[in-house]
Amino acid sequence: MHDDHDQALAVTVAVLLLTGTVRILACWIGPLATFAVTAGPVVTASAAPGLTRRLTASRTVRQLLRSLPGA
Fold first, then answer.
1. What is the rounded CA–CA span in Å between residue 37 and residue 43?
2. Which of 14, 15, 34, 35 sits CB 3.0–4.6 Å from 26 for a disulfide?
């Protein structure tokens, strides 16, 4: 019961901080730049695992092809 309350409080504080930050940034740098600043890390975090896997796979294939005899 106590953990649920702590988690709800943490989510509430995080949402308030994010909302306040977005509103302040919108006043300082404009709405489009604010969207780019706030959406950039979210998109990067969601794309990073797939991009990392793709880069690792392509590097592994290149190393394998180099190690083959006659290549």
1. 11
2. 34
Domain count of the fold of the chain: 1
Cα–Cα distance measured from residue 52 to residue 57, given in angstroms and rounded to the nearest whole number: 9
Q: Are 26 and 35 within 8 A, CB to CB?
A: no
Radius of gyration of the chain (CA): 22
**Could you tell me the two tokens for 18?**
């994010």
The residue type of 68 is L
What pTM was estimated for this model as a whole? 0.43
Q: Which domain holds residue 47?
A: 2-67
